[in-house]
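Annual report, structural modelling task.

Input specification for the iron/sulfur cluster complex:
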Amino acid sequence: MEFSKIQELLAGEPKYRLTQVNQAVFGELTEDWNTVTGLPKALREKLQSECPLDIPSEVSVSLDKDTVKALLKLSDGKYIETVLMRHEDGRNTVCVSSMVGCPMKCAFCATGEMGLMRKLTADEIITQVLFFARLLKKENERVGSVVFMGMGEPFLNYDNVMKAVRVMNSPEGFGIGARHISISTCGIFDGIKKLSEEDLALNLAISLHASNDEVREKLMPVAHGYAIKELLVVIDEYIAKTKRKVMFEYLMINGVNDADEMAEELAGLLKKKLCVVNLIQYNDTGSFTASSHNRINRFKEILEKNGVSATMRYRFGRDIKGACGQLATGRN
Ligand code: SF4
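The model returned the following structure:
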């Protein structure tokens, strides 16, 4: 979908046409310009031929039906994946990609193995939310939140990510509250600083995954240039400026980063910070094995005993390779 092209096509039209078009695309979630009868027939035909509303896709649904993964084909023939997570309490979260592939090469991540093919445009990011908004509409449901935790490092595509976020947040777009939009980064300092200056109260999540630089460098090559100590200084500045809680993502990998001493070490780093640690059970991508439930519970206990709040993330969509770190299209 090329929303920017729609705007170009409407250049010579009265201003209210754009309102009508936004209402049709994001409000009514129409999939066919011919149904937008408030627009003149000639304009509908032009839109139909130059900006068709269809989104080429293939969908997989997990056995428990909690997770829907969509493989979307982009206009240059490349593919990306996006995931809908349906929570028990009825909330629907879309996990969006910001790149085709990813240059960060995290050792536990299938996307990282692809390398970076290209960054997504804002339109391509918005299309992922639109795809699931349409799907949910058929069940009278809506997208409640969006997380940038799919393929790619969002802060290496900052401008397009923020452009897409503004459409997600705008009442003329999807009207999703800023507090329901989360950006997850492996710790790009510039991006964190820029986010703290935005006028939107978005959530920030940091992929930490280790309690010291040695382990983090093994798991995340990016850590070579971004030591944990320096990262935490940037996070402190972010918290001081925004007064918003930061989430630290911690993938629990058996025998790598899940020892009691590492929980103590992590607690030492995060004590007294306005933050929460989200412990995620590792999803198999072939390189490591997952920590046991007991181990994760023990790790969580140690953090909490030391005054650091922690949650455990339920694993979505493992059987369709739609879980954290498993997105890779195999088509590009
Ligand atoms: S975990 Fe995120 S940042 Fe790391 S390689 Fe995968 S997609 Fe990229």
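The mean pLDDT is 92.
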